[in-house]
């Protein structure tokens, strides 16, 4: 791989480290930073170069690497050495002792491999600690499985009938965002007042992002504790956001982040999304319907069910078919009135549990 990188005109990590050693002789200010922190920049550059080579092999057109501006570079990494955590303080070499709020205890008898320090756009500092632990994989039972259908009106509707409404945090903050954007446009570029307005704009976005992550973490943890296996649709979100009427709601929902959280909290399996909304979960017949139609009515078997609940059962059935397990047919005919009453009751339960 190193030879191929040289053929492409890129520099390897070792070459960059040698150049860094020579650069220190002429630039004395580099001695104010820990050596491992500087060497990690070489590792990041080499990783970016390898990514460009792989993209070119896959047929993509790529440009050249561009270094981040000083104002846009907010992350540095301590690897292997130069850091320590004791008594609620983070010790960083060449920086000093910093009081931290530790959100999670570090397991005993485990060495810390890496510490990543990052600064958010609103000015807050975060430390991400990486260490190796011997994880014991729990036993997985397919009897504790569920299918989840994600959507815009209802964020998640599972095969057991539990529905969670979509908070749409960005939609609730559109007026404050529009107000601060108009304020930014009136400020002179480069002025301190404009920087203050931009920072407040970034704070609003950070609050929206934190609310979204809090909601997704709570919901994914709830499913991870209740089920061993979770089946969800394999959605091509890049194609879905091409619909300009739904793009904002789709991006605001955070379906991809929800899937990633489920992936490391429990066993998540993606199934094809084809015909999950139009297929009848009882007889398997096709019932075409527009997006505005929220009730599934099958003329063949007479099943009347919420559209998302029907899709969640189909997702569960497709997932179990991967393991050659059949889902028992125990669905009864329900009316739209029962669906609305049950949804209201479950929504109240979901908020009371939080």
Low-confidence stretches: 1-5, 330-354
Radius of gyration: 26 Å
* Main sheet: strand order: 9-8-7-10-11
Report the β-strand fraction as a percent range.
Answer: 15-25%
Residue-averaged pLDDT: 82
The number of helical elements comes to: 11
Helix content: 40-55%
Distance between the termini: 50 Å
Secondary-structure element string? HHHEEEEEEEEEHHHEHHHEEEHH
What's the number of extended β-strand segments? 13
Overall geometric form: globular
Structural class, by secondary structure, is alpha+beta
Largest sheet: 5 strands, mixed
In total, how many domains does the architecture comprise? Answer: 3
Short synopsis of the structure:
This protein has three domains: 2-67, no CATH class; 75-131, no CATH class; 145-353, no CATH class. The chain is built from eleven helices and 13 strands. The chain has helices at residues 2-8, 13-26, 35-57, 169-172, 174-186, 192-226, 237-240, 247-253, 255-265, 307-322, 336-353; strands spanning 75-79, 83-86, 89-92, 96-99, 112-119, 125-131, 145-150, 154-158, 163-165, 229-234, 267-272, 295-297, 304-306.
């Amino acid at each position: 791989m190193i030879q191929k990188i040289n053929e492409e005109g890129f520099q390897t990590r070792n070459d960059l480290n040698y150049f860094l050693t020579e650069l220190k002789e002429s630039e004395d200010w580099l001695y104010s930073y820990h050596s491992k922190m500087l060497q990690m920049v070489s590792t990041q550059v080499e990783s970016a170069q390898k990514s460009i080579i792989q993209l070119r092999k896959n047929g993509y057109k790529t440009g050249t690497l561009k270094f981040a501006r000083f104002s846009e570079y907010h992350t540095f990494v301590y690897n292997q050495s130069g850091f320590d955590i004791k008594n609620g303080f983070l010790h960083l070499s060449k920086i000093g002792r910093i009081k931290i709020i530790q959100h999670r205890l570090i397991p005993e008898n485990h060495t810390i491999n890496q510490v990543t320090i990052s600064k958010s756009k609103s000015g807050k500092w975060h430390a991400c600690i990486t260490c190796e632990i011997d994880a014991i994989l729990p036993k997985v039972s397919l009897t504790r499985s569920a299918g989840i259908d994600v959507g815009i009106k209802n964020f998640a509707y599972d095969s057991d009938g539990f529905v969670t409404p979509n908070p749409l945090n960005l939609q609730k903050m559109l007026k404050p965002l529009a107000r601060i954007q108009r304020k930014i446009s009136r400020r002179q570029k480069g002025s301190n007042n404009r920087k203050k307005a931009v920072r407040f704009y970034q704070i609003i976005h950070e609050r929206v992002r934190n609310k979204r992550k809090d909601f997704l973490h709570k919901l994914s943890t709830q499913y991870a504790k209740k089920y061993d296996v979770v089946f969800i649709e394999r959605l091509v979100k890049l194609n879905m956001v091409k619909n300009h009427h739904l793009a904002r709601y789709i991006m605001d929902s955070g379906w991809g982040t929800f899937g990633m959280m489920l992936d490391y909290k429990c066993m998540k399996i993606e199934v094809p999304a084809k015909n999950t909304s139009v297929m009848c979960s009882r007889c398997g017949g096709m019932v075409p319907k527009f997006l505005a139609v929220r009730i599934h009515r099958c003329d063949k078997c007479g099943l009347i069910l919420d559209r998302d609940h029907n899709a969640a059962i189909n997702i569960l059935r497709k997932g179990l078919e991967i393991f050659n397990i059949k889902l028992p047919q125990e669905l009864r005919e329900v009316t739209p009135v029962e669906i609305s009453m049950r949804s209201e009751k479950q929504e109240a339960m979901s908020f009371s549990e939080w």
